[in-house]
Amino acid sequence: MTTFITVIQVLLGFGAGLLILRAWKGPDLVDRIVALDLVLLMLAGGLAAEAARTGSQFYIAAVIVVALIAFAGTILVARFVEWRDVP
Amino acid sequence: MSFVEVLGATVMGIGVALSLIAAWGLLSFPTALARMHAAGKPASLGLSLTGLGAGLAAESVSLTVLGAMLAFFMFLTAPISAHMLGRAAYQAGQAPNLHHDDLAGVTIPVDVAPQPGERSISGWHLIPLVIIWVVLWRDAGVGVWIGGLLAGLFVEVIRRTGRPNGTFSPGAMVVFLVRYSGMIVASNARVAWEVISPGNQIREAIVAVPLRTDSLRVALLVSNAITHTPGTLTVELTEDPLVVYVHLLHFKSVAAARDDVARLEELVCRALNEPVPV
Fold first, then answer.
1. Which of residues 16-55 of A touch B (CB under 8 A)?
2. CA of A60 to nearest chain B CA: how many angstroms apart?
C-alpha cells in the first residue's frame, strides 16, 4: 500500500508539472489561473494520499484549506479578469 | 489486504487517472474554453475520488468523512469557478473558431443587484453546517455543538438577500441524481477519450437555450448541472427572460443542444416541485 501511494503521489506530481507548463505558456491570464487552480487540487489529492499512508489527522485540515484557497483564488481572479478592461 | 483497502486503492487509482487526464487535456486542447472543459470536471471528480479512496484505503472513518466532504465541496464550487472563468474568457475574446455563437452581440449587464426577499432560518441549512463544524473540531462535546449552532445561526442571519426557499420532492430528487450521475460518467468518459485519442473532433459552439420555467431555483440547478457534465459549460445566464448560454465541445446542432437542456430542465423541475413546463 505504501508503494502504491508513492506511485500515486509521483503521478500527481507529474500532472502538476504538465499544468505548470500550461501556466507558463498561457497565453491568457484565464489559462494560467485554471492551470494553477488544478495544481492546488493535485496538491490536495497528494495530501489526502499522504493522510492515507500515515493515518495522521493533521492532513485533514490541510486538504480542506488547500481546496478552499484554490476556489477562493480562482473566483478572485475571474472577477479581476472580468473587470480589467472596465475603466 | 482487506476488501475495503483494495476498494479504496481502486477508487484512488481512478481519481488519479482522471486528474492526469485533466492535466493532459489542459495542455493539449486548442482554445481556452475547450481547456476549461478538460479542467473543471475530470479534475474535481478526480480529487473527490482520490479523497474518498484515501479514506477507504486507510480504513479510517474520519478520513472517509473528509473525502465525502471534499466531494460535496467540489460539487458546489467547481461549477461556480468554471462559470465565472468561462464568462471571463469569452469576454476577453478567448473564444475563437466557434461554429455557432448565440452570445455574439448580446450585451449582458456586468452585475445584477440581488433581489431583496425574505429569508427564514432553515434547519436544512443549519444542520449540515453544525455537523461540518463538529466534524472539523473532531470533538463532539457540548461546547462544540453550541459553538457550531452559534456559528451556523450567524451564517444564516447574515444571508439575508435572495429568494425564499422552496420545497423539493425526495423521490424525484433521487431520480434526478441517479440519471444525472449516469450523465456525468458518460460525459466524463467522452471528454477523457477526446483527451487521450489522437487528433480531435472538437467543434466548439455557444448556443442560447431559453428556459421554459420561470423559477430561479430551477435555472440555477440546471445551469450548474450543465457545467458539471463535461462537454457542456454554462458561460452566461440571463434573467427576464431566463436564457442559459451553453458552450459545447462537440457541437452537432442547435436543436440537439436545446433538447438535452430541456430534458435536464424537466428532471430538475420534478425534483424541486416546480410545475413541469410543457
1. 16, 18-19, 21-22, 28-31, 33-35, 37-38, 41-42, 44-45, 48-49, 51-53, 55
2. 7
Q: What is the ipTM of this complex?
A: 0.87
**Averaged pLDDT for residues B182-205:** 78
Q: Which of B15-24, B164-173, B209-218, B229-238 has the least mean pLDDT?
A: B164-173
Task: Indicate the domain borders of chain A.
Answer: 2-83
Cα distance between residue B259 and residue B265, in whole Å: 10
| B61: Cα within 13 Å, side-chain hemisphere | 2
Pairing of strands B232-238, B205-210: unpaired
DSSP B68-93: HHHHHHHHHHHHHHHHHHHHHHHHTT
Which residues of chain A fall below pLDDT 70?
85-87
φ and ψ at residue A44, rounded to 5 degrees = -60, -40
| Confidence (pLDDT) at B118 | 47
Closest residue in A to B56 (Cα) is A52
Residue from B50, B80, B195 to probe the interface with A (highest A Cβ count within 10 Å) = B50
pLDDT confidence band for B165 (50 / 70 / 90): low
Cell numbers given for A53: 499512508
pLDDT of B25 higher than 80: yes
